[in-house]
Amino acid sequence: MNADKNACALGADSQYVELAVEVFAMLADATRVRIILALRDGEMAVGALADVVGKSPAAVSQHLAKMRLARMVSTRQEGTRVLYRLENEHARQLVADAIFQAEHALGGEPAHHRLLVHEAQPAQPAQRSAS
After folding, report:
1. Contact at 8 Å (CB) between 26 and 35?
2. Which UniProt keywords apply (predicted)?
3. What pTM was estimated for this model as a whole?
4. Which residues contact 15 (CB under 8 A, 6 or more apart)?
């Protein structure tokens, strides 16, 4: 039974805990969080990312280099341009969950709860008028 518990990556004694802390440290920067949000819909070049996050292309390039080493983003060459994309869905989900948690910290009903309630309600059938 203990062997099964130790095999789980989500256990308190997981070998991945320290690496998870490094992931959180990488995301403990507002510019990197903004980069991930910008890349969630697809690839972007450094210049476009710089415009979206409000930083210089040089600063964005430095953040992207660190994120690339951490395997959060990857690149694709298109002619002379380098396009960046999220390496996988997990960084996007981590950032989304962190923002949802931040909404909870403000109190009241978080926006993501209102969206989920509206999405869960079935569509009402159209009413026919009596002729």
Report:
1. no
2. DNA-binding, Transcription, Transcription regulation
3. 0.76
4. none
